[in-house]
Amino acid sequence: MSIRQTFAGDLKVLPTHGFGVRSLTWWGVIAYMLIEGGGFALAGGSYFYLMSQETVWPPASLPPALLPGALFTLIILLSEIPNSLLKKAAEAQQRDRVLWLIVLLDLIGLVLLVIRGFEFAHINVRWSDNAYGSILWALLLLHTIHILTDWAESLVLTVLMFTGHGQEPRRFVDVSEDALYWRFVWITWLPIFALLYLVPRLV
Amino acid sequence: MRRPLSLAPVLLLLSGCAGVQSMSEGAGFGSQQFNHLMLLFLVVTGISYALVLVFLTVAVAGRRNEGGEARLRSLLIGWVGFILIGLVLLTVASFFSDRREARAGAEQEPLKVTVSANQWWWSIEYQNDDPSRIVHTANELHLPVGRPVQLNLVSGDVIHSLWIPALAGKQDLIPGRENDLRIVPTRIGHYRGQCAEFCGLQHAHMAFDVTVESPQNFAAWYAAQQQPAPEPTDPRAKAGHDWFMSHACANCHSIAGTPAGGVTAPDLTHVASRQTIAAGTLPMSRGNLRGWIANPQGVKPGAHMPAVGMTADELDAVASYLETLK
Amino acid sequence: MTASEHPDDTARDGPELDGPELDRILSETWGDKAGLIGWLTTVDHKRVGKRYIVTAMTFMLLGGMLALIMRLQLARPESGLITADRYNQIFTMHGSTMMFLFAVPVMEAFGVYLVPLMVGTRAISFPRLNAFSYWLYVFGGIMLWVAFLRDVGPDIGWFAYTPLSGPEYSPGKRADFWAQMITFTEVAALAVAVEIVATILKQRAPGMRLDRIPLFVWGMLVTAFMVIFSMPAVTLASSFLLSDRLVGTQFYNATEGGSALLWQHLFWFFGHPEVYIIFIPGLGFVSAMVETFCRRPVFAYPVMVAALVTIGLLAFGLWVHHMFATGLPRLGYAFYTAASMAIALPSGVQIFCWIATMWDSRPRFEVPMWWVVGFIITFVIGGLTGVMVASVPLDLELHDTYFVVAHFHYTLIGGAVFPLLGAITYWFPKITGRMMNDRIGKLAFVLVFAGFHLTFMTMHFTGLLGMPRRVFTYPAGLGWETLNMTSTVGAFVMASGVLVFLGNILASLRRGAIAGDNPWGAASLEWAATSPPRPYNFAHIPAVTSSTPLWEESLPVFSGLRVKQRELVLTTVVEAVPDIRDPSPTPTIWPLIAALATTGLFIWSIFSPWALVWGAIPVGIALTAWFWPKSPPRHGREPVIE
Amino acid sequence: MRAGIVFLFGLALLAGCRRSDRSMTSDPHAEGGSGGANRSAAQQGDYSTSAYQVSEGARLYSWMNCAGCHGPHGGGGMGPSFMDAEWRYGSSMSDVVRTIDGGRPNGMPAFHDRLTGQQMWQLAAYVRSLSGLAPTDILSGRAEQMSGKAPFTQRNPDKPAKPGEPY
Disulfide check for A137: which of A101, A127, B254, C515 has CB 3.0–4.6 Å away? Predict the structure, then answer.
């Protein structure tokens, strides 16, 4: 006893791509931001919990050297300028502006990864020294994984944009969402920077 | 509190809920609080459950609803009101019961005992201002009736949980933390406690005996526990003493008044006076003592007591020496 | 952008292309290759959903067998049937299998299968990610069980408190396999949660406003968000444990600034929402079945949705009631007592609304409704004992005893498995096209119901008599003997009921009565599709004018989607107005290869930290190949995802 | 599906094999004499490659206060260090058991009657694992005690804090 069907409209005229909340992958990126954001928040919570266990913070070691961390933060904040331009260009589907901006961002990503190497070198504590060292390495490693995965994704997208596939509108949606995810990467860096570099000095 | 009231909850009667390790035994202030609060909870939740069953029976087999949505809505509001009142009542009751238990026997000077849990046995130390009067024992707890006891709980390895259901609630022993548990025993008798947090291979065999006795008996027991081990007179026991001191046993166990001074295993100064051995696993008897010493891995596989190779008569000598350590 | 003239792009469904001709073209577009290749490369949410359900039910049977072995060991005091080490592995595997390999996956599997059908779309939102998540989940389950059969199974309990699960007191790789299994199942569950959120928010049938979404779909949405917010906690905790055990970090080492309670906080922040993740879909099943068999929408729909959301939010605020005995400040406990008690309100309201729906209509008591009534009778007891263990003074006695074992079996089996067995009976016709046998179904219910209560009601008293949890044996003379024997007998009665249910499924697969599209006369969209649904679900995208579309006179549909390429319609979040024609990914082998690479990385990282560096390369390659377009650029053509 | 199972089965077989079995029941008959130093090769393997036996050895190392002379993690002190490859009296399992059992000149006490044979073998397995003579996958990541790292003040006297750093 299947129900009688009546035609009530035609979808033929609808567009085949959309930016922002209209795009399905945007919601996927937002959901993963919630997951990873939740993970960072809990890692931050663990940081404060471990801090409450100690009488002196940092216990028995120097806080991480300020220079690499501050340099990293400065550059990643500045990277938002080309990042916003890239997002606008992608949403305006201006292919040549997108091409050089995305290459610029890949280079910035490379520079940031090098600086991150110096941060690891000057963290002044081993992960196995104490819980302070462990949570510091965990926070820095978690964020580095995010930079690496986003950088690798941008590289793949850059190569794709240079091929013929780069003309399809859906690729511009991908670029815009990749820029959005980069914004998430540096936003989550700010509290981690505070936990790693400022809290041990202020408390 | 008279005994029958604590048995009042009908549900518990089915199991004849008395027992040395039963929560509703009511032999301690905590357990009595548990009985009263559990009774209140059973009443409130019982009423709620009855209401649900009645409503379900009517909905399944009774007359259909004529009052339409409006009647359902008013019933829903009534039901929400009932749940709210019930929850508030239970929350407040449990809060006050918790405070009453925390303040129980606050006016008396509590007996201070440090309990250190290790993988699969309890080290118990009766604190005293005069260090020479500190009593070390293991796997047993003697308490004077009516006097609160402050158990200072520390763990030597993993998380354990000290729990004497007949007296009071449990409290975990967590490495790196010092917890404390306050018990006010109210009735003389023998009870049994057991580790309640999974702690490895022999978690099931990590119990201890609790004896609540009159203050006079407790004082007598306490005095006896302070005496060092008597020198064995019987030749067989003497041979056992010599063998004990010259072999692996003295390395881990300690017996006051003898060169044996190991701290990584239970103190055996008055082992024969205890009701059970191997942390509540076997009742104390000649046969059990021999069986345990000969092959501990057979009784508690994975326990840290190794099988010390000894011939039959060495075993008999050591066992008879231990039996003199009343 | 000029519209493409290519015939593949212009062929659209509609009045002129309908019936068997349309079915042939769409089946070819949405179908899979034949045989094993098709089986390994499919991204059809129905095929992946079915195999998810079958795998999860297999793990339930395995977990159930372990439970029977435990009951045999505990039937008599001081029984020497199995050694302590083996028993510890068995109860840990029973808990871990039931919680991580059966309960969460089977609820998400039903979501994967049913949500796209119930919201009226042709595919789940990220179908390739869906296939990847299944492979990762099954490889994780196999890894744990192979380790268990190799005597390297975890022996630390399903919540693995440190320092017992730490490097010093759990030698060897047992705890590592457990912690890595968490990583497998958690990545899989998060992936499915993301798909379910995106499908429900963006792919609802035109007209399915927020107040016309079926209650089961609301349940899956709340569950998905709970998975998204709770699973990172257990990921963090198990990763910290793995690094403690492998490279010597000090997270849980009390002497070096760490804390054993950090593990408990992180784990239970996930642990309690997890049990609600397991039981909220159960509430969704009950709402769907009650609506159909009472032939009436569930009473007070907005109150039901509010109750679901409230349970979802409250679940994050009461995890410390698992830690009442750890010596945290007493005032903090009072807050958690109140929060734990408060969750009884939304549950109580939902119970009322279901019973009111039954009372306000003439319910037909088919087998699924037997399970619903069984659910109400059993779950309410579980909820009430939950109120008892929410109170600190009671919990200090009841915690870690068989009373708590009885409580969580009442809420999990009563609250989730009973509705699940009802849901299997209810949706079996839709999934397989055949009805399950009525009499065998009722027999199975009676056996499971009787066996369950015989087993677990008894455990309340075993707990009150002081029997602690997780003991591989107990001394005689404490009054526990008859109670434990009763529980063992009950366990075997319940197991026989489950076997009868399984037999009913296997028999009905071939000899069950042919079920039409809507054998129960239900109202939700999945019953508008055929039984079993075609690969493309709906010939034309259905539209919705009320919360019970199939009880209206006619079903409005929208035409105009491409038929030669995979395409579905995206609608706006609140009003579900058609917005975009979105291409849907085609079948591919890459999710399987990516899952194999990820499995290699996870298992290798149990033995060496360098796995994260070198193991990540094959995973990166597989993911790039998965994403990379497989055919030359389509200038000016309609987009596709290969 | 089948390919997945076979792949995983092989992988697990490779890793799991005998690392984790827990032969709790000691073999009393091997006691007596020189602490059971003359065990068969098979029995020796049971101890030196079993994570459980090595962890029991670690427990005995702290209980018998070996750390007093040999340092918290065998780092060396009055007694020789176990971290290096230099073994004055031989590094095979039975050599180490013989050392524990009979003691050695200038300071090593004889544990002949103070430890059972099984304990000596467990201790030997742990001591050898400290110097990397045991398969790495049976070692534990860390112990539940202090990690034995020198506090900051003594850690690197030759590297003074850089100017401008607050500490």
Answer: A127
